[in-house]
């Protein structure tokens, strides 16, 4: 076999690494599974005693909410009884809820906060 004939003879195998599929497997393969962490809402509950300004301060400091958004959400909780302060992975949601309860207790306010799967 000449050198050039040898190159031609091998070219089929060497360049058909996808077994003749010509890349169409990219279009037909199963979608790869990516684990997504379950998310949790941190809910703020209304009560008759916690001062409005205290709730706004909690939303600003614990949930890093801009003041105008914090006021709007506080009023929404005041009107409807409940509101979502944020949505996080479980550990962060739990930590935020604990912070709210601790700060409220330290100030002797009855503010309640719970987490719920999103
Ligand atoms: N209802 C309270 C008041 O009138 C204000 C308030 C708002 C309390 C939101 C709790 O999650 C809350 N002082």
Describe what this molecule looks like in 3D.
- With 118 residues, this protein is α+β, with helices and mostly antiparallel strands.
- 49% of the residues lie in helices and 18% in strands.
- Strands 2-1-3 form a 3-stranded antiparallel sheet.
- α3 (52-61) packs across α4.
- Residues 44-48, 50-52, 55, 74, 77-78, 111 line the site of L-tyrosinamide.
**Number of beta strands:** 3
Principal-axis shape equals elongated
Mean pLDDT: 84
Strand content: 15-25%
Order of SSEs: HHEHHEHE
What Rg is obtained from the alpha carbons, in whole angstroms?
29 Å
Low-confidence stretches: 1-25
Please state how the strands of the largest beta sheet are arranged side by side: 2-1-3
State the helicity in percent bands. 40-55%
- Give a short account of the largest sheet: 3 strands, antiparallel
CA-to-CA gap between the ends?
69 Å
Bound molecules: L-tyrosinamide
Q: Which structural class fits the helix and strand makeup?
A: alpha+beta
Work out the helix count: 5
């Amino acid at each position: 076999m000449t050198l050039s004939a040898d190159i031609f003879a091998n070219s089929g195998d060497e360049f058909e690494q996808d077994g003749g599929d010509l890349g169409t497997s990219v279009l037909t393969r199963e979608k790869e599974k990516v684990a997504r962490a379950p998310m949790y809402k941190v809910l703020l509950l209304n009560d008759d005693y916690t001062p409005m300004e205290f709730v706004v301060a909690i939303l600003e400091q614990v949930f890093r909410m801009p003041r105008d958004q914090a006021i709007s959400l506080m009023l929404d909780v005041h009107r409807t009884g409940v509101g979502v302060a944020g949505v996080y992975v479980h550990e962060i949601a739990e930590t935020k809820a604990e912070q709210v309860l601790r700060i409220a207790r330290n100030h002797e306010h009855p503010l309640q906060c719970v987490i719920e799967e999103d």
